[in-house]
Design a protein that fits this description.
Distance between the termini: 67 Å
Strand order of the largest sheet: 3-2-1-4-5
Strand content: 25-35%
Order of helices and strands: HEEEHEE
Structural class: alpha+beta
Low-confidence stretches: 15-25
Helix content: 25-40%
Mean pLDDT: 84
Radius of gyration: 21 Å
Shape: globular
Largest sheet: 5 strands, antiparallel
Number of strands: 5
Length: 121
């Protein structure tokens, strides 16, 4: 195979891959924000919150697991506790559920991409 033929194969492959990637559905992120009715950490290390957008308990992370990491999970627990104690809002970003009220409860909840402590209102 000549160099020109190799380039043509590579270009054709890239064009095919590009059209496949463009045709793939994009997953939309959702942002859930509001006040917390409670926060707790169980003996397994799960950090669980009760957000106004769901009105049920959902796990945001586990202090002993690699994802999102023990330091990150500790900080998220701190944000949640601060929000609950000071009646402040939090904002979480998810990529999986289609709406905030469809997030599964307790350990069925996906791990958010981030947890943000919002400014005082």
């Amino acid at each position: 195979m000549t160099m020109r033929e190799k380039r043509q194969v590579i270009i054709a492959s890239m064009l095919t891959l590009g059209s496949v990637l463009c045709a793939a559905p994009a997953s939309a992120a959702i942002w859930c924000s509001g006040k917390l009715a409670g926060v707790y950490i169980n003996s397994s290390g799960d950090v669980i919150i009760n957000g106004s957008w769901r009105n049920d308990w959902t796990r945001i992370c586990n202090l002993n697991e690699a994802t999102p990491g023990t330091v990150t999970c500790s900080l998220w627990a701190s944000f949640a506790t601060t929000a609950w104690q000071n009646n402040r809002s939090v904002r979480l970003m998810y990529g999986e559920p289609s709406s905030c009220n469809e997030i599964p409860n307790y350990n069925g909840a996906p791990i958010p991409a981030y947890v943000m402590l919002e400014g005082q209102s």
